[in-house]
Amino acid sequence: MKSLFTSLAAAAALALLAAAPAQAQSSLNLGNYQVSGNHTIASLGGIGLEASAVAYARDRGSLFVVGDEGLGVVEISLTGQTLGTMAFNWSGTGSSNNDAEGLTYLGNGKLVVVDERPQIAYQFTYAAGGSAALNNQPKVAITGSTTSVKNVGTEGISYDPLTGHFFSVKQDDPAQLREHTLNFAVGGGTATNNVLFSGASSVFGLNSLSDIQTLSGVDALVGTQAADNLLVLSLDSRKLIEIDRTSGSILSQFDLSGVTTQAIEGVTIDEHGTIYLVAEDSGTPNSRLIVLSAVPEPEAYALMAAGLAACFVARRRQRG
Length: 320
What we know:
There is one protein chain. The protein is mostly beta strands. It has helices at residues 2-19, 298-319, and strands spanning 33-41, 51-57, 62-67, 72-76, 82-89, 100-107, 110-115, 120-125, 131-133, 138-141, 154-159, 166-170, 175-183, 185-186, 190-199, 211-214, 230-234, 239-243, 250-255, 264-269, 275-279, 287-294. Strands 2-3-4-5-9 form a five-stranded mixed beta sheet, with no helix packed on it. A five-stranded antiparallel beta sheet has the order 6-7-8-10-14, with no helix packed on it. A hairpin with a 4-residue loop joins strand 17 and strand 18 (239-243). Helix 1 (2-19) packs antiparallel against helix 2. The protein is globular.
C-alpha cells in the first residue's frame, strides 16, 4: 500500500507540473525558447533539397518535409533521419513551376500540399516508396481562383484540428494571413476564404510571410487562450512571431538572424511545444532541420522541486 502511495505521490507531482503552465496561459512565449538541435536533411536525389515546408505527424511521431522543386515528400525523424519518401507526379495539373511551398498534416497519413503560384491545395495519403498523381487527388483552389500570382503566392498552410479550418499565408503583394474552410474533391472542391490580415508590402511588421502554424495541438495549451494563437514565420525578416488570431497583436517573438545563414521557410510544432524549422540549402550541400525547445520557467523548477520533495517524504514514510 505504501509503495502505491509513493507512486501516486510521484504521479500527482508530475501531473501538477504538467498542468501548471496551462492554468492561465495566454502565450507560448517564444522568448523562452532556445536552439536545441540542428540536423542535416539528406538530399535524396533532390527530393530533400531546398526544404520549403514541414509538418509534424503526432500519430507517427515524425515530420514530413517538401522541397520547392516539388519532387515529392520526405518523412524524417525528429532529428532529421530519413524514414521514407513519396514522389509527386504533376501531370495534368497545369502547374508551371511545381512550387510545393505549403504542407500540413491531417492525421492517419493524410497530408495537404499547396502549389504556390496557382494556390491549389492537394490532399493525398502518404505511402513510403509510392507516387502521388496530384491531379487525381482531392484538391481545391484555396482562394477560389487558379490564376497564377507568380512567386509571391501561398507560402504556408496549417490545419486547426479543433475547428477543422485551415490557415494560410500569402508571401507578398499583398502579404496576407487567411482562414479557410476547404472542401476537397477529385476534380476540384470548394473553399470559403476569409482574409484576416493584409498589407501592401508587410503584415505584423514583417517584410514577407513564409509559413504559419496553429497551436491548438500543444497539450499544455489545451483549454487556454494561447491555444488559439498562431505562429507566423518570415524568411526575409528572419523572425518567428506568435500572434493573437483575432487582433493580430504580436505576443512573443524569436529572432532567427543568428541561427543560420540559410533561408528558413517552414515551421511546425509538436504536442510538447517543441518547434521544428526547415531551411533551404541556399548553395550549401544540404537543407537543415532546426529545433527550438522551451527553457523551463522558474515556477516549473519550483513545482518540480515540490514534486521531488513529496516523493521523498512518501519514501521516508514507506521506510518507517
